[in-house]
Design goal:
Bound molecules: copper (II) ion
Largest sheet: 5 strands, mixed
Radius of gyration: 24 Å
Number of strands: 8
CATH architecture of the largest domain: Sandwich
CATH superfamily of the largest domain: Cupredoxins -  blue copper proteins
Strand order of the largest sheet: 2-8-7-4-5
Helix content: 10-25%
Structural class: alpha/beta
Strand content: 25-35%
Number of domains: 2
Shape: elongated
Length: 153
């Protein structure tokens, strides 16, 4: 093979490799829809507490506790859609899936383990509400927050 032809085949091979890489990269966009799990363990909490997802992604809440829990949206601060959510997730494997098509913040509570007013706003834990432990102290409500980034569909 001549020196010139050899250079050309190396160039052609490189071009094919770059093209294949570029095509492959385009087929796996960063915003391909994903379903993220938020677990409820054998305790009154959501894990993770805070999660950031992309527009078009879904959240799947899975209740592995023996008690029922719920997802209630906070209307005042909910900019990510799904206003007025009030869904029970049964104990021992209950599941709730919500898809998010808008950017924003979605704070949510469990209505059984938070003290909420009529507009689903949390009321500060205290003598009038909240979770009271055996020693009489009031703890934080069971809640979590989803931040949706990207561009609105
Ligand atoms: Cu709960």
């Amino acid at each position: 093979m001549s020196r010139l032809r050899s250079h050309w085949s190396v160039f052609a091979l490189l071009a094919v490799a770059i093209l294949a890489f570029a095509t492959h990269s385009r087929k796996v966009p960063a915003d391909s829809p994903t379903t993220h799990n938020v677990m409820i363990p054998d305790e009154d909490r959501f894990v993770p507490f805070a999660i950031t997802i992309h527009v078009g992604d879904s959240i799947r809440w899975i209740n592995t506790d023996t008690d029922d829990h719920s997802v209630v949206s906070n209307d005042a601060f909910n900019t990510a859609g799904h206003r007025g959510v009030n869904q029970t997730i049964s104990g021992n494997g209950g599941v709730l899936v919500l898809k998010f098509d808008h950017t924003g913040v979605f704070p949510f509570y469990c209505r059984f383990h938070s003290m909420l007013d009529k507009a689903n706003q949390p009321i500060a834990p205290g003598p009038d509400g909240g979770i009271q432990d055996s020693s009489g102290n009031y703890g934080t409500p069971m809640n979590g927050v989803i931040t949706v980034v990207g561009s609105d569909n």
